[in-house]
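Database export, one record per block. Field names are fixed; values are copied verbatim from the stored entry.
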Amino acid sequence: MPEGPSIVILREEAAGFVGQRILRAEGNAKIDMTRLPGKRVESLRSFGKQTLIELPDVAIRIHLLMFGSYRINERKEAVPRLSLGFDNGELNFYTCSVRLLDGDLDDLYDWRGDVMSDTWDPALARRKLRAMPDTLVCDALLDQNVFAGVGNIIKNEVLYRIRVHPLSTVGALPPRKLGELVKQAREYSFEFLAWKKAYVLRKHWLVHNRKCCPRHDIPLTRAYLGKTNRRSFFCERCQKRYGEG
């Protein structure tokens, strides 16, 4: 599943369509395609793992889900979920969720919850976390209401960085660790963005899809954990378990 930094890259790559008028809209998405042709793209925004194409009276929300993809000025052999044609090219989305949103995006989204946003609010994230003391940290980091944009790679790497076991409970974390969790969720996301742009992201993984702990050179544990049942890679020696999660 593409994480927040990858969606920022999508937004930047498609920025050339801002100000352009949609000439055609087609695909197998279950939306009213007739609402789109003739509309000018006012802005391209992102919230967490969502791409938002803002038009004068409606916004197109794209979520790439687990296996979604996009192509700019080229196509895959598969039928696109949504294909938008412009004078200067086309934008194609595949295997994704497409919805039309009515209303002002600033009323629909609280941008303070997006780890990539200029308005990200760490104090708000800490308050949300304190309200969910029994939640496992491996689930809390993937909660898009708290950390919009954080995905499984970021989860695994952040927990290793701050030496916290994924089965720790949020309420059992010392205040310093809770602060580190929030701080690193944002900092690692921006490092992820820089590494992905430089095509070196995988080289910087410490535990995700790795076999040995780089600190102790012992085998990492790999397990599907939490209510999210996502893959976790962690070290039983250097990642402390807080609470009875």
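Remark 1: The chain has a mean pLDDT of 96.
Remark 2: The first helix runs from residue 4 to 13.
End of record.
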